[in-house]
Specification:
Elements (H helix, E strand, L loop, with lengths): L1 H9 L5 H12 L2 H16 L1 H20 L4 H4 L2 H31 L5 H29 L2 H8 L1 H18 L6 H8 L7 H8 L1 H23 L1 H7 L5 H29 L1 H14 L1 H8 L4 H25 L9 H30 L4 H18 L6 H11 L1
Length: 397
């Protein structure tokens, strides 16, 4: 909804799209802060409390966004309030996704952690699919003036209802078995972040790398694509959203296969495979999307989505496994700094570089550069898949 929101909150000027992407980017600064706050709560008091609190905050923020007055009604203050609400959402998501990954990893059968944790990525893609689908329906069924006046509110209202339903469903959750054992053993740490920063630095570097690759492939290869198709590829807003919807389906399809592959052949080789794909494919896929041909644009969007979905699926299990239970959420919180840099900032940076240089393949080059830097670290990643560890023990024993 970037191009629509840019008109509604920042006017029809040439820089309004870039301003909207900047609002999206600035909100990501709040993710590490939210992750640190919720991470401390989760490592001290439990994963369940984090998942309830983060979703409660998101529900309120989404609802208020849907009810916001526009620039036409209150002037530039509308954009300021939108920015503040985006920051609240970023704070919430900082604890949300790391909490979900940790909860699933700690409750899954050891030999199925990759598959089960990948469902967090798949579920988020169901959310992305709903978001894009609702946005596509909204833009297709409402006229230009109606879309700018009230139609843009529909996706946010839908999101608020979904968040509220999720909050109700989570109220019946039990605490994660691993944290329950930790609590019963009275082994919870009073300062989990400080201990993690002092004693888990290699794990922090590895998690930062996994998060960096997952973030740039996702936010450039999926989130930014509808804007790219509209601003660079010359597609109408509704057509770009439908192409993005199909790409979201592709992510949901690839996710469980990537998670199961990580269980079977290991986290390290699977991450290395997707890092190589992230290195060699993005430039040509973004080139496809500049040709103005729907079939080529769809191919580019789907291939990028498959690569991004694979990285996110494997990262969902491999990142939490880098840390012990008592400091797991705090360690993952530090990794969210990579999401701010390589996730929230990259759509804005991509558009800014395209506008300033005229080079339309900048987004693909950015993804490939991060993949190139990540490959050496992923190549030396210690294997954490339980099934592979058992096989290694048998081979050496």
């Amino acid at each position: 909804m970037t191009t629509v929101l840019s008109r509604v909150f920042f006017g029809s000027g040439a820089s309004s799209v870039l301003t909207t992407l900047a609002v999206f980017a600035v909100a990501y600064v709040m993710r590490p802060l939210g992750a640190l706050v919720f991470g401390h709560i989760g490592d001290r008091l439990g994963r369940r409390r984090v998942l309830l609190a983060s979703m409660a905050v998101m529900t309120v923020a989404m609802l208020v966004t849907a009810l916001l007055p526009t620039r036409e009604q209150i002037g530039s203050a509308a954009g300021v309030v939108l920015l503040l609400l985006r920051c609240v959402m970023g704070f919430s998501v900082g604890g949300e996704y790391t909490g979900v990954m940790t909860y699933l990893v700690e409750g899954a059968p050891p030999r199925r952690r990759g598959l089960v944790a990948s469902l967090a990525s798949a579920a988020s893609e169901v959310g992305a699919l709903l978001a894009v689908g609702v946005a596509a329906l909204t833009t297709a069924l409402t006229s230009g003036p109606a879309l700018d006046f009230w139609g843009w509110r529909i996706p946010f209202l839908f999101g608020a209802l979904l968040a509220a339903g999720t909050l109700i469903a989570r109220s019946t959750m039990q605490e994660s078995p691993a944290f329950e054992e930790l609590k019963q053993a009275r082994a919870t740490d009073r300062a989990p972040l400080r201990r993690t920063l002092r004693g888990q630095r290699p794990a922090l570097y590895r998690t930062f790398t996994i998060s960096a690759l997952g973030s740039i492939t996702y936010y450039v290869g999926i989130t930014y694509v509808p804007t790219y198709l509209t601003a660079v590829g010359g597609f109408a807003e509704s057509d770009a959203l439908w192409l993005a919807t199909i790409a979201s389906v592709a992510v949901i399809v690839i996710t469980p296969f990537a998670g199961a592959m990580a269980d079977r052949v290991g986290r390290r080789p699977t991450l290395v495979l997707f890092a190589v794909l992230s290195l060699v494919l993005p430039v040509s896929m973004f080139a496809f999307m500049t040709r103005g041909h729907a079939a080529l644009a769809l191919t580019g969007a789907v291939v990028l989505a498959l690569v991004a979905g694979g990285v996110s699926a494997v990262g969902a299990s491999s990142a939490p496994e880098q840390f012990p239970v008592e400091g797991r959420l705090s360690g993952l919180a530090v990794g969210t700094v990579a999401t701010t840099i390589f996730g929230g900032l990259t759509p804005y940076l991509s558009q800014a570089l395209i506008d300033s240089t005229g080079w339309r393949l900048v987004p693909g080059v950015m993804v490939a550069a991060v993949a190139l830097l990540a490959l050496p670290i992923l190549w030396h990643l210690p294997e954490t898949a339980p099934a592979r560890l058992v096989m290694a023990d048998r081979a050496t024993g």
